[in-house]
Structures are given as structure tokens and as C-alpha cells.
Amino acid sequence: MNELPNCETLLLERDSGVLHVTLNRPDSRNAMSLAMVGELRALLAALGDDRETRVVVLRGAGGHFCAGGDIKDMAGARAAGVDAYRELNRAFGSLLEEAQALPQVLIVVLEGAVLGGGFGLACVSDIAICAGSAQFGLPETSLGVIPAQIAPFVVKRIGLTQARRLALSAARFDGREALRLGLVHFVEEDANSLAERLLESLEQVRRCAPGANAATKALLLASEGADLGPLLDSAAQRFAEAVSGAEGSEGTLAFLQKRKPNWAR
């Protein structure tokens, strides 16, 4: 199990193969500061080859997920000019890329503000659970800026037509609309229901072999824009390696013996 980095803006808790990560800047509705981006990226790097951590659950403290980028950081970069703004913005895009490619299953629990950068994090999750009262939106254009790093992930998540409407109107919407758009998978009306849905999702993921999940996630992500023939050739090779590997052998044997495989016990 890899050692986790020390964090000032994140709360970390490990529990039976699950890493609970809480964005912990409640005084700013967990706005994404440069320090938080750096800590999240360091955490994801530490998890890259950690096979004992099977699921990462990401949520926010104080009743909000994330209200977007930290305006104070943007103001602080003003004196350094365009280059500082570019580096600040691109760092968040790198975070989204790294979160999307995480080999573990990424579950987000969305409450309160899910705006801008928080919206982007929701778009790179594998499983998204939200409160019906959560408030989603892309407010960038109402501030005179653009959702530069977020936009490609939003388009992939909900499609170009809806992304255009939301980005060009800065419209706010709730959890039920997020479900209709395909941004989230589950919407719950109270804290108990949110907790129960999270437990159910964790139980379902635990039934799946961690190595098989990581390979499947990589295959699904590679399918976007890839040529079909080479993609299927690569998938066949991955299948052969999986079925002849330790997890494939254990999974098929467990099926024949009518028992749970060792990763699901």
C-alpha cells in the first residue's frame, strides 16, 4: 500500500480498500485553489500503482462539493501576466486528465455547489451520486472567462448540444436535471439515502476484480476516437492476459465451485 502525501486542503481516510477523499476548504465552498490542485495531483500520482486501494470516493466538506476555481488565486496571478494564468489553468486540466485515467474506480458524492471545476470533476467520475438539492452550473462566461479545461470533459459526458446550452447561458440546475442530462447516475433526496446509495455502489464494485476493472476502464476510455480494428486487436490481447492471469483463474474457478472469488469476500 502506497504512502499517501501530507495534505492541508484534503481529508484522507482509508477503509477496507476504499480511500475517502474530502475537499476541505468549507469556508470557500471548497473552491479549487492551486494548493488543492497540487495536493490532488500528488495523491493521484501516489495511487497510480496502488493495487490495494480499489475505490476512491471524492466529496466535499461543509455541505458543498466544489464551487469552482479560487478567485483569489486568479487575482494573485494577475500581476504575473498571461503566462501565470495559462499555467494555473492548465494545471487543473492535467488534474482532470489524471483523475479520468485513475486505475481505481472513482465515485463522487455531490452536494451543494457543483460549479465550474467541481462540475469538471463530476464529469471524470466513474459513478456519480448526487443530492436532489445540489446546484450544478458552468458560471465561467458570466464572469467574463471561459470553461477552458472543463469544456472537453463536459462535452464527452453530456454531449455537445447540452454542453453548448449550459456553457453559453451559465444556467443553474439541480440534481434531477443532472440525472436527466446523464451527468450523474443516481439522485437522492436526503443524507441517509446518499449514504445508502454509496454503500450499495461500493458493494457492487467490490464484486469486481480490481485488475480487471482497471483494464476495463482503460479499454473504455481508449474506445473514444480510436480506430476499431486496432482497438479490438489490443482488447483481444488484454483479454488473453486477463483470462490466463491470477484474477481470471480465480474468477473462473470460483464460478465453477459456486463461491465468491477472493477479492469479493
Automatic annotation (TrEMBL):
GO BP of this protein? isoprenoid catabolic process
* An example Gene Ontology molecular-function term: catalytic activity
List the Pfam families hit by this protein, alphabetically: ECH_1
**Matches recorded under InterPro entries:** ClpP/crotonase-like_dom_sf, Enoyl-CoA_hydra/iso, Enoyl-CoA_hydra_C, Enoyl-CoA_Hydratase/Isomerase
What's the domain of life for this entry?
A: Bacteria
Q: Which PANTHER family match?
A: ENOYL-COA HYDRATASE, POLYKETIDE BIOSYNTHESIS ENOYL-COA HYDRATASE PKSH-RELATED
Family as reported in the entry's similarity comment: Belongs to the enoyl-CoA hydratase/isomerase family.
- Name of the protein: Isohexenylglutaconyl-CoA hydratase
Q: Which organism is it from?
A: Pseudomonas panipatensis
